[in-house]
Task: structure prediction
Amino acid sequence: MNLVARIEGIGLVGPGLVDWNAAREVLAGRQPFEHKPVVFPAPEMLPAAERRRAGKCVRLALAVGIEAAGHSGRAARELVSIFTSSSGDGETMHAICEALASEDREISPTRFHNSVHNAPAGYWGIATGAMHPADSIAAFNASFAAGLLEAMVRLAQQPAQPVLLVAYDAPYPEPLQGARPLSDSFACALVLCAGPDAKGPMIRVDVSSQPANSLEDAGLEALRAGVPAARALPLLALLARESAGPATIEYLGGKSLTVDVRP
Result:
């Protein structure tokens, strides 16, 4: 495969990582990682009614998407978007399961429309006015790699059309958390471009059989291993350090994606 792109913008929200500017200092080793509760940014771009209905996953996805688009200098509404999550909105699924297990079994219409996997993509369209295609995918623990591969293939087919990749995950409440444990909430976004005006570090993506990279910092490695969306951290660490080299990320069927970075 010849999948090449430039990364024009990055967004990130995680435990102790309020945005990309703060996270890059930690990932580059210039600041220590301190695990703190995730701050879920308010989705200010949404109308009041939708803002009240937006759950954690929507708030994460919108925050990192808007941040990445802002850093790229491109209008958010002009980006094709790929949303990827291993589990979707676990809190909404928990509430629906509780309703179905109760005596009246009536499900809130708001809960129902937020339960679908493409809800964050829908809220993105409402918030930004974007009319370009917005895909939503899931591949269990390989969801970030699957989303990145989807975005790179889309860009190879239409080099002049920038692509926004948004990856997000948040834990389920119990008892679902016991069956599908996620250690924390995390989201990141990349604006990928390949046109003649593209700028920023270059990446080349290929499928390989190399083992996935781990991180030296124990806290960051626990986050990478405990949240599927955080499998992006080895790549983000290279970008934060402005270093050349490969980042290998878990994919499907015993394979991985090797992302070669050239600042």
